[in-house]
Structure formats: C-alpha cells, structure tokens
C-alpha cells in the first residue's frame, strides 16, 4: 500500500485510526527489503491521531462504541497512556507451529499482552514503538511483541476488557461485546444488518467458552481463571 500524503482525521471525540495494523504488518510480515525502519516511520508520520486500534480482517468492531469509551477515558484526565484489550498473562511460549518462538529466553510464559484480535494503544505508546524499532526484539507474534515492548514502561493503564472478544477463537456472541474476532464475512454482514435494525449485536446470545476478569494483584501465571457468567 502506497500512502502519498498525510491524512488528518478530525472528529469531536478522540480520533481513532484503524491502522496500527499497517505499522505492525510492516514490522512483522514483510521482508526487510520491503520494509525498512524509514518506511515504518513514514507510515507513522502520515497520520495525526490520538489512539490506534489494531485489529484483524476477520474482526467485527462497533467503532462508535470504541470511540465513546475513548471519549470517557480522555475526559477522566488521568494523563496515563492506554493499552486496552483482552489480556493474557499465562500464555505458554509456543515451540511449534507457525507462531513458534525458538529464541524466547525471558521465561516460560509470554509477558502479559493484549490479544491480537483487537487492541488499542494511545499515541505515545505507538510513538515509542516506532522510535525504538531499530533496537526492539521482534518475535513471530505481533501481539506478544507489543506486550514485551511495553512491559517496562511506566504510567500505562493496562485495561482488560471482557467486551473484547479477541482470542484465537470467539467466545460466542454477547450483546456486551464491542469487538469480536474470528468472524466470517457472512457473519459480519449479518451482525451489521441486525445491529442496524435492532441495536443489538446478537440475534441470540451464546457462550462457546468461559471468559475471565484479569487479576492484576497476583502473579501473571494466576491471572486468568475462567468463570461462568462473564461475557
């Protein structure tokens, strides 16, 4: 994709750009011959934004609800950076398959990270990644890498949100969801049409697997106990 000019998005509530995937695609999935550090900086510099949402092409997003939540967040005036998604702190390092990590030497778990079906970063966090890309360790999984890169930074609000259905497979359908991953084109079309007509995401709410609320007060390996009744 060639970006020929700088785009400025102006809306009344915080600007959300569904484009962090451009930066991370460049970093992780294109060869070095096609994607140099200067290319990464250019992608970053073409946009004027407050927050970035990274999501996959099989993720359905209620963008207006994301924006509404960001408006609430900004109005709190916390002055903290935002890393918002559905977090996992006890994922074991993959040693086989397409996402295997043969040179992960930190521990036997990944560091806590927001799952890659969709997450939001505030501007300064994206700026940090881009400005330090030349010295950051790249791993096969983009979401794992982002969690690692941001782990030592201070003044970050890591916001675990059960309304983000962003795991490797969907937990089902809940009218509380504002983002849901692993959806087919037909599923997304049907959800959009039903939402436009009814204001609800699901014709029928279903649960395919239990969810969890992240416990930040215990070691990461104990963070994420699935329970019934959580979206």
From TrEMBL:
Pathway in which this enzyme or protein is active: Glycan metabolism; heparan sulfate biosynthesis; Glycan metabolism; chondroitin sulfate biosynthesis
Names of the cofactor(s): Mn(2+)
InterPro entries reported for this sequence: Glyco_trans_31 (IPR002659)
EC nos: 2.4.1.-
Signal peptide segment: 1-32
Membrane topology qualifier: Single-pass type II membrane protein
Cellular component per GO, a single term: Golgi membrane
Subcellular location(s) of the protein: Golgi apparatus membrane
Biological processes per GO annotation: glycosaminoglycan biosynthetic process; protein O-linked glycosylation
UniProt keyword list: Glycoprotein, Glycosyltransferase, Golgi apparatus, Manganese, Membrane, Signal, Signal-anchor, Transferase, Transmembrane, Transmembrane helix
Molecular function GO labels: galactosylxylosylprotein 3-beta-galactosyltransferase activity
Gene3D superfamilies from the UniProt entry: 3.90.550.50
Superkingdom field: Eukaryota
Protein family (similarity comment): Belongs to the glycosyltransferase 31 family.
The protein's name in its UniProt record: Hexosyltransferase
């Amino acid at each position: 994709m060639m970006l020929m000019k700088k785009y400025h998005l102006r809306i009344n509530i915080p600007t959300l750009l569904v484009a962090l995937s451009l930066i991370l695609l460049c970093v992780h999935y294109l060869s070095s011959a096609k994607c140099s550090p200067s290319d990464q900086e250019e992608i970053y510099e073409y946009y004027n934004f407050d927050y970035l949402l990274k999501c996959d092409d099989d993720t359905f997003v209620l963008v207006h609800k994301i924006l509404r939540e960001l408006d609430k967040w900004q109005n709190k005036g916390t002055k903290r950076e935002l890393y918002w998604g559905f977090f996992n702190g006890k994922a074991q390092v993959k040693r086989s398959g397409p996402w295997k990590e043969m040179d992960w030497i930190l521990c036997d778990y990944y560091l806590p990270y927001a799952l890659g079906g969709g997450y939001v970063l505030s501007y300064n966090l994206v700026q940090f990644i881009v400005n330090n890309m030349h010295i950051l360790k790249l791993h096969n999984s983009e979401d794992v890498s982002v969690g690692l890169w941001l782990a030592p930074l201070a003044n970050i609000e890591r916001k675990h949100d059960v309304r983000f259905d962003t795991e490797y497979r969907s937990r089902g359908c809940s009218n509380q969801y504002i983002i849901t991953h692993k959806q087919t084109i037909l599923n997304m079309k049907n959800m959009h049409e039903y939402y436009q007509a009814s204001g609800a995401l699901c014709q029928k709410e279903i649960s395919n697997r239990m969810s969890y609320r992240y416990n930040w007060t215990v070691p990461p390996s104990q963070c994420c106990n699935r329970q019934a009744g959580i979206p």
